[in-house]
Amino acid sequence: MNRIHLSLLGLCAAAVAGCTIEAPDFSGKSCASIADCPKSYTCVAARPGAGRTCEVLNAPGVTDPNDGPVPTWCQDIQPILAANCVSSCHGADTSGSGRADFRLDMYEADGGVAGAKLMAPRIHARVVTYRDMPPPSRGLPEPTEDERSLIDRWASGGSPSCDDGGTPDPGT
């Protein structure tokens, strides 16, 4: 019982003394890509009207999903979307989705039809955050956890196209 009292007394003393850890807060700092944010922060559009800002999305001690190079459309993301999203819903055939305003088999917008680049925030929300794409009723394979992590890092890292840091190849 004395131990409990001593522990409570120590906790109260720390609270009264104002025991805090001082650390600079980068939350809300404007950014264009994850490279503009310090480690443990990511560059996202999370604040209405603020554009993209640095935000902490991981608790201390949690592995940062943004470690490593930012995945690219050409090498990493297009194959995942081709296997899970394009066949009869979000490619040339949109009969499965009824949505002809975007396609996930192309990177750039074309003739008023949005491509994966413009849809990256929605792809992230539906595949990573809500995990409701593809719909289970469609019988399509779901992305693996590693694939979801790649999509997370790609969308959070500025949705680059190819190895050239996001500048689409003139031939695409």
Keywords:
172 residues; mainly alpha; two-stranded antiparallel sheet
Record the strand order, biggest sheet. 1-2
Please compute the radius of gyration using only Cα atoms.
Answer: 21 Å
The helix fraction, in percent, is 25-40%
- Report the end-to-end length measured between terminal Cα atoms: 72 Å
How many helices? The count is 4
Give me the count of strands.
2
Mean pLDDT, as a whole number?
77
How would you describe this protein?
This protein is mainly alpha-helical and 172 residues long. It has helices at 2-17, 73-86, 116-129, 145-156; strands at residues 41-44, 53-56. Helix 2 crosses helix 4 (145-156) and helix 3 (116-129) crosses helix 4. It is globular. The N and C termini lie far apart (72 Å). Mean pLDDT is 77; it is low at 5-23, 59-63 and 166-172.
Short description:
This protein is mostly helical and 172 residues long.
List the helices and strands and how they pair.
Layout: H1 2-17, E1 41-44, E2 53-56, H2 73-86, H3 116-129, H4 145-156
Helix pairs in contact: 2-4, 3-4
